[in-house]
Amino acid sequence: xxxxHALFILLVLTSSAFAETHSGQASSNAVQxxxxxxxxxxxxxxxxxxxxxxxSAIPLAIGGLVSGTAGAVSSQAARGxxxxxxxxxxxxxxxxxxTITVMPPNEALKKPAPVPAKSDKAI
Amino acid sequence: xxxxxPCHDRSxxxxxxxxxxxxxxxxxxxxxxTPMRIRLLASALLSVALCFATLPVQGGSFSSSSASxxxxxxxxxxxxxxxxxEKTLAGKGAHVAILARMGRPAAELPEGMHFTHVxxxxxxxxxxxxxxxxxxxxxYNLYQQNDHPEIxxxxxxxxxxxxxxxxxxxxxxxxxxxxxxxxxxxxxNSPTYVALHDPHYSLIANPYTLGKQxxxxxxxxxxxxAIYQTSDIGKIKANEKAFFEAQTVNVSPLKLILGSVFSAxxxxxxxxxxxxxxxxxxIGKYLQKYDAGSEMLILTPQP
Lengths: 123, 303
Description:
The structure holds two protein chains of two kinds. Chain A is an alpha+beta fold. Helix content of chain A is 29%, strand content 11%. Chain A is built from four helices and two strands; from the N terminus they run H-H-E-H-E-H. Chain A has helices at 2-18, 41-47, 79-86, 105-108, and strands at 51-59, 99-102. Chain A has a two-stranded parallel ribbon. Chain A is flat and about 40 Å long. By secondary structure, chain B is α+β, with helices and mostly antiparallel strands. Helix content of chain B is 37%, strand content 19%. Chain B is built from eleven helices and nine strands. Chain B is globular. The chains are: A alpha+beta, B alpha+beta. Chains A and B meet through helix 1, helix 2, strand 1, helix 3 and strand 2 of A and helix 1, helix 3, helix 4, strand 3 and strand 4 of B.
């Protein structure tokens, strides 16, 4: 019985120590898991109507070469992007004023299957 | 909706799952059949779990980005700040940068840690849903999987998504030197970027060892793959041990042990000694020391 009391006291003391945080109080900004959130941040942003959904993004390499993550070359670079890609690093870059976000599932379901891009020679 | 979760700050919710109604009734409704000592022990363990759930240790690289988190700021505030970050990067001509966010308030994080999630921001040609090509930044992240927080995935999103679940509107930015940016682009565009990813996730992954990884360790590995122009993980780790100073995890051993028991994403299996982990701050120090021409800055919303 004494050992059980000792164990209980140890566990209670341990749990008290856990309450010591930098702020001295439990977090009031609990991050909810995806399965419990009543509304996801992504949905809220998308629902604001102020964003543009993106299908894909390809890194714009430096020196005029526009390449994808699999080595494919984009032949439809936006003129501004192509110009920026040839500029030395450190030269101010153009970016869109639109807010880009990941495409929500309901929009993705409306899209046909992507056609594989033809591979072009690097510039 | 993303099926992934930020590289760190969502772990608390898992411990709160312990607070199920059935558990409360079992532990706190005395019956003649259950020996009192067992109930006493169970109650204490539940208290420990609940108290642990409030600890900052789950802050993780304490990194976390989650499309599933509740917004703490209005969409307009997030959109405006995300665009401010993009314009800052673009104004400095950054083709690649390291970007960090605060998924938890600084006061809730262990000493030496401020930002909770780190990723690469890459200047890209973005194809919009209507087919238009737009220039902007894509973010290359390592996120935990929602249903399996001990497993991570490499996920691409955009600045507004990256900042959507922040607790504090503040961005950490490291702009590497032009030479390092060039090498980083080559690595990110190569199979090495994915090959360096270990999906076995730990909140406090040790950057010097293999077996567990978090977003900051993956970022560091990619950086060193670029610096040393190698995909050899052995060489990368050797150089990290020699030159990179990790952050000591200033959390009591008991808390860490219990954390590893109660939370799938907390592990000490890759920590041979006192736990250490990589952070945005330690990565920043590393590059400021060894990458001449790199720049580190903190952004807060413009008034």
